[in-house]
Design goal:
187 residues
Amino acid sequence: AGAARRARERRADAVIALCGALAGEVRAGRQPGEALLGASRDSGGLGRAQAVVLAAARFGGDVPGALTDAARRPGAEGLLGLAACWRVAVDRGAGLAAGLDRLEGALRAERDQRADLRAQLAGARSTAVLLAGLPVLGLLLGTALGADPLHVVLHTGAGLGCLLVGGVLEGVGLWWVLRIVRGAEAG
């Protein structure tokens, strides 16, 4: 999950870099297709989808359609905005650089908001991990005080019942906290 999250974040950063580089290329006077070719070299990181988009730009294909297809990959959703800017600029003659600047700003603000939310939720995650470790700490403390909590928990009926009920409640509690945190991140 961590590797997938990092790959998604790399793609999102590459989309932001592509928007900024493309806006600079268009402001420098290049045509949109030529600017996309130059900007893609500067941004990188979109992988296989980038090759399809570049082929569409190089050979006069459907660039917005290729961008829309590329936006299906996790983290590359910002390419939908780029496709919309491209359609409006090429079909209607609107300024591509201004739209790209606004799109880049919006994507950066969204990325910063996600990072801030992740930082705020780190406390809830660490609390859940700490609470999950408390039963083990209790067993260690009981052993250090000279009691034999493992014998009581593993070799008596009441201990096995408590172990079973406690394990189920611990699992449900962890699941619930992680569900809340994931829900907050998704929202």
